[in-house]
Amino acid sequence: MDTDLGEFLQSRRARIAPADAGLREYGRRRVPGLRREEVAQLAGVSVDYYIRLEQGRGRNASDAVLDAVARALRLTDPERLHLYALARPTGTRPVASGGVYQSTVREGTRLVLDALTAPAFVLGRRMDVIAWNALGDKVSGFSSVPAEERNQARYLFLNPVAPEFYPDWETVAVETAAFLRRDAGLHPDDPALHVLVDELSERSADFRRIWGAHPVKEKTHGGKRIQHPEAGLLDMGYESLLLPGDPDQLLVVYTAVPGSATAAALDALSESVTNAHV
């Protein structure tokens, strides 16, 4: 985890040019971005203190110091929270049901899923897909995947058809790795997460490339294009909602603009699902 903190800070200072930070460039730079002493200057801390922080020896860093470093490195809100998680690892977060992670959904959540007319599914920790409704299954084919492989990151980086299914594969891949990286910061002692990251790193050069850049992002909302084998190109939006009482579970709902070709295609898929159960 100390290594993760150092690599994260290094990746973030590498993306900021001195001129963009209002600093004069001097001397020859062996690596791009800000030097350690420049980050320390911008954050208002000593160089020695910042070096200790990058080396993972700043466990007693105050909120003020971490916020100052976050401002100096121009971190986004998810990146700032990731910095806190790495600088102050406390094991896994307290979660529902006495602190035990729930890998299945509550009955109430299942009823909500089935009541939705839009494609929907629930992501658990490590981007495991743990529940879905009928239209969500029709769009993404979750039920056709063995339970132990039902994971968004594993599908995206290890399934050879993923680049065809997602026309914007690179964008989706970065977002997926960024969300997985956020999960790693929140749950540094999750052995299953380490196994997953090790497997993806060993088997996918693309994952190694993207993971090495330390992207961090929450999965809140956005767009998703899917090349569906029956319906053709689906150009959808998505909204993600943390489930009350289950902070490790995320409800993802796909949306389509009313009257659009995608809305019509989803209606057709929904009708086929209904007819299949008649």
Topology diagram in text:
Layout: H1 2-14, H2 36-43, H3 47-54, H4 63-72, H5 77-87, H6 96-99, H7 107-115, E1 120-123, E2 129-132, H8 134-140, H9 152-158, H10 162-165, H11 169-186, H12 191-203, H13 205-212, E3 221-228, E4 232-243, E5 246-255, H14 261-276
Antiparallel strand pairs: 1-2, 1-5, 3-4, 4-5
Helix pairs in contact: 2-3, 2-4, 8-14, 9-11, 12-13
Summarize the structure.
By secondary structure, this protein is α+β, with helices and mostly antiparallel strands. It has 14 helices and 5 strands.
Computed CA radius of gyration, to the nearest angstrom: 21 Å
| Biggest sheet: strand arrangement | 2-1-5-4-3
Helix content: 40-55%
Low-confidence stretches: 91-99
Largest sheet: 5 strands, antiparallel
What is the strand tally? Answer: 5
Mean pLDDT: 88
Written account of the structure:
The chain is α+β, with helices and mostly antiparallel strands and 278 residues long. The chain has 14 helices and five strands. The protein has helices at 2-14, 36-43, 47-54, 63-72, 77-87, 96-99, 107-115, 134-140, 152-158, 162-165, 169-186, 191-203, 205-212, 261-276; strands spanning 120-123, 129-132, 221-228, 232-243, 246-255. Strands 2-1-5-4-3 form a five-stranded antiparallel sheet, with helices on both faces. Helix 2 packs across helix 3. Mean pLDDT is 88; it is low at 91-99.
Features:
278 residues; elongated; alpha+beta; five-stranded antiparallel sheet
